[in-house]
Amino acid sequence: MKMKKKLVGVSVALMLVASLTLAGCGGKTAEDPLADGVLKIGTNATYVPFEYRDENNEMVGFDIDMGNAIAEELGVKAEWVDTGFDGIFNGLTSNQYEMIIAGTSITEERQKTFNMSSPYTANGIVIVSRNDGTPAKTADDLKGKKVGVQIETTSDYAAEKIIENGTDMNLSKFDAMLDAFTALEGKTIDYILTDKPVGQFYTSKKPDVYSITSETLSNEPIGITMRKNDTEFAQKIEETLQKLRDNGKLAELSQKWFGEDITENINTELKDY
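Given the sequence above, the corresponding structure tokens read:
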């Protein structure tokens, strides 16, 4: 009898320790990725002004502010994971984070593999010209000119395709868009091919130096990427994103980073150059 009581006491104690351990871990679960009070977000902090590192090596940008606002609405803390874009989707499928906010285009191929939110903006290639030069309005106007792009971006791929289609140009590839705009201002290149929001950001900083002079040459709706099987979580993120639209937060952040609202009247049709 005494032994039985002792065993029961040990069992109860073990159960209590186990329950306290689980409670202390507060780990994420498949049913609730936010169970630990943290929203882990994958990004690639090289894409000004969406996500990049400032002079203090802090991640800043439109996407960063938006992700933080989503976390705040959900009552959790945002934790950002900066990773190379070539491995960012593998990081999501291997549960290194719960979603990706990295200026990611919504494509049919990605929608087959992942949950994609509705677009919060759209991207597209534009031409930026110096104000003291001849404005380039179409890709044909780039023939024989020195054109700057950021390496390994959609602008880089678009420029290569323009060359393949018969419009020869002298292509300069830069590691960062800031370097390209410095070169344009310094007149070592004639034009820049870049994503429209990036062009809007830089031209808003120096409107007396350069301007966007073309129509958008392509269109890529941009959304948040989540795992395919996290349907309830994806719905929660979609509802929160809509709330940020309705309460004006997305418009406020857009004005902060772009000088205009690029989150309304979004063209949702994917159109490659």
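The chain is about 40% helix and 25% strand. Try to locate this feature in the token string yourself.
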